[in-house]
Amino acid sequence: MAAPVQPGPPPGFVPLSRRPAPSAAPSRVRLSARGERLAGFIYGTIVALSMLVAGARAYPHRPGPIAVLVAATSATFWLAHVYAHALGHSVSHSEHLSRAELRHIARRESSIIEAAVPPVGALLLGPVGILATDSAIWLAFGLGLLVLGLQGLQFARIERLGRTGTLAVVTANLGLGLLIVALKLALTHH
User: How is the chain split into domains, by residue range?
Assistant: First the structure.
């Protein structure tokens, strides 16, 4: 006698053993948000350091205008990112962008501006007489490099990289920053 046929699971059924844990989805969302902010900090720091180079060339003895240049450029790039991501969101979701979603995008991209705060703060120590101009500019570069190094460490921690992976990521981040410092030296010390 043949074994009776057992009815199969209903369409779309996923056994409990294959379902993601309830906390898995929020953690992916949190990791995605952390990744976006991390990318913004790295990008924003590179923008700030690049403008430091341009500013040091244009205003070699005036850290105040350099600070304005770095801050204004960072704000402009932030605005460009918000605009581009807003349009991309609208197209990819086939919907008009709500104010709430626009605020969310602006907040997510704000790390571009936040990355400029340490270098701008250091630059402003020059005009108020706390640091000499050259010291303020080099402190701004140093803080930018520190941010790049810390962001490399944060990435390595999130990704659970070992020592070699951590060293590689931090070296890559610092390498980008040091390349910009080398450009500053080449342009301002001819």
Answer: 37-188
